[in-house]
């Protein structure tokens, strides 16, 4: 130590600042120290040197023994501390290994209780570890959160309600967000967490908010409630789910059935509490033909003003009531007539018919024919009626016996009806009334000259005092083969 001190001071006095000057100074000083050491050693008596050596060895031996004793005592003390501290890892592992879980839990609880006692709001709040092994503030009593509710004090910029930026933050943006059920977005610049009026000792949550976009959601409106809609005393919609959707700036309440899934109509009711005015809007949403028919019938009744009421199903009380008026130049009668026929055909065949935007006259005639047929009968007329027969001995005599008078004839066949993209097949029984054979004498001459197996065409025309050949179609209920049934 003395040599090092001497060298250090010599460097200072010699102003040795470079590596070369420093090495030169060290060499000179150490050489002088060695010369002086050897000089004074040569002046010492040998007996004194021997005694000095004995003393040095004794001191070294004593030092080793003392060091070993200190190390031993220190290790023993370390073991005592490790095994007896409350959160001793080794001790806890040993206790768990032998099944003393309660002891470990008690130790951990004691440790956390001791820390919790230092919480600002103890005994109402304390500290606990999270799943992420972070310390956080927790309520220790049932009413702690009521007495000291959690809240954040935020300094923010770029405030938005929904997608609308808010420049005047002095306005009641919380009320606006509630009325329109829109979230508030804020870019957090600074944040502090409070428990009641006291700063939370743990500010981790507040620190993590800085630099993020905070979202504040308003309290929700009351839940949807089941209702039915009546026109007069008739229930036209047995079950709808209505819920307050929005409160407009002019205080009008907007109620809709938006939460009702798979409902063919969107219902919007607007109520003005100031004037008691009620607006009732029904918008189709991919309805079926049957549901569309219901809508058209409702609109027809509303053309002259209709008494509409909305009833709460659970309370069986009238919730809304008013006169609904509908003004339109639309010919609802034709649409209702068309949809009634389509829905009847759908019900009869258990099929869904896709109706195009435009319907031709020919398609309409097929629909009318089929609708009347499944409802009982279809009446039609034709200018002439043609039948073709294969001549044989059996029918040759019958043709020759025909007279020039009015006949009633009937035949059966398979009727194929094409309604847009659907084909429907029905067994048809058709009866022509008061028809007669056109040019009977010419027909008989053909019968005389034609051979068996030849084709013979018979043409029927309107009978006496008739202008067309009238016929009636019905669905055949008996198992009869196709063809002419009788002529009388």
Structural summary, described in words:
The protein has 488 residues and is an alpha+beta fold. The protein has four domains: 1-43; 125-216, no CATH class; 226-330, no CATH class; 361-487, no CATH class. The chain has 13 helices and 21 strands. It has helices spanning 2-13, 19-42, 46-84, 89-97, 101-116, 144-147, 173-180, 204-209, 289-302, 332-349, 361-374, 393-400, 440-449; strands spanning 125-129, 135-139, 150-161, 164-165, 184-195, 198-199, 213-216, 225-231, 234-247, 253-256, 265-271, 278-284, 306-312, 317-324, 378-382, 385-390, 407-419, 422-437, 455-462, 469-475, 483-487. It has a seven-stranded antiparallel beta sheet with strand order 12-11-10-9-8-13-14. Strands 15, 16, 17, 18, 19, 20 and 21 form a seven-stranded antiparallel beta sheet that branches. Strands 3, 4, 5, 6 and 7 form a five-stranded antiparallel beta sheet that branches. Strand 17 and strand 18 (422-437) form a beta hairpin. Helix 1 (2-13) crosses helix 2. The longest helix has 39 residues, at 46-84. It is elongated and about 180 Å long.
């Amino acid at each position: 130590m003395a040599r090092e001190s001497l060298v250090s001071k010599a460097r200072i006095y010699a102003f040795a600042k470079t590596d070369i000057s420093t090495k030169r100074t060290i060499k000179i000083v150490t050489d002088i120290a060695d010369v002086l050491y050897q000089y004074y050693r040569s002046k010492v008596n040998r007996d004194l040197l021997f005694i000095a050596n004995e003393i040095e060895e004794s001191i070294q031996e004593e030092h080793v023994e003392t060091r070993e004793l200190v190390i031993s005592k220190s290790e023993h003390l370390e073991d005592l501390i490790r095994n007896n501290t409350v959160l001793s890892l080794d001790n806890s592992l040993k206790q768990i290994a032998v099944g003393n879980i309660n002891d470990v839990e008690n130790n951990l609880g004691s440790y956390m209780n001791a820390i919790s006692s230092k919480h600002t709001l103890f005994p109402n709040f304390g500290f606990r570890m999270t799943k992420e092994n972070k310390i956080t503030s927790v309520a220790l009593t049932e009413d702690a959160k009521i007495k000291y509710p959690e809240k954040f004090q935020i300094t923010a910029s770029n405030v938005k309600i929904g997608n609308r930026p808010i420049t005047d933050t002095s306005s009641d943006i919380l009320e606006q967000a509630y009325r329109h059920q829109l979230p508030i977005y804020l870019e957090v610049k600074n944040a502090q967490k409070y428990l009641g009026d006291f700063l939370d000792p743990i500010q981790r949550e507040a620190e993590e908010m800085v630099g993020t976009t905070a979202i504040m959601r308003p309290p929700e409106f009351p839940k949807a409630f089941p209702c039915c809609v009546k026109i007069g005393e008739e229930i036209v919609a047995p079950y709808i789910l209505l819920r307050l959707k929005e409160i407009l700036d002019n205080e009008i309440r907007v109620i809709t059935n938006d939460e009702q899934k798979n409902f063919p109509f969107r219902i919007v009711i607007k109520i003005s509490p100031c004037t008691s005015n009620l607006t009732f809007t029904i918008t189709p949403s991919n309805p079926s033909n049957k549901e569309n028919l219901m809508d058209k019938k409702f609109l027809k009744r509303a053309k002259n003003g209709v008494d509409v009421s909305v009833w709460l199903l659970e309370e069986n009380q009238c919730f809304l009531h008013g006169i609904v008026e509908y003004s339109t130049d639309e010919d609802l009668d034709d649409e209702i007539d068309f949809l009634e026929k389509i829905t009847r055909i759908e019900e009869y065949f258990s099929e869904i018919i896709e109706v195009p935007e435009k319907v031709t006259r020919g398609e309409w005639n097929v629909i009318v024919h089929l609708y009347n047929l499944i409802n009982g009968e279809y009446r039609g007329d034709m200018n002439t009626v043609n039948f073709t027969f294969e001549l044989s001995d059996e029918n040759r005599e019958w043709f020759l016996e025909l007279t020039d008078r009015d006949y009633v004839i009937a035949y059966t066949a398979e009727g194929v009806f094409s309604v847009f993209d659907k084909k429907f097949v029905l067994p048809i029984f058709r009866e022509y009334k008061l028809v007669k054979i056109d040019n009977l004498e010419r027909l008989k001459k053909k019968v005389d000259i034609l051979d068996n197996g030849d084709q013979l065409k018979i043409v029927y025309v309107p009978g006496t005092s008739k202008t067309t050949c009238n016929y009636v179609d019905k669905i055949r209920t008996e198992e009869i083969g196709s063809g002419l049934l009788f002529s009388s």
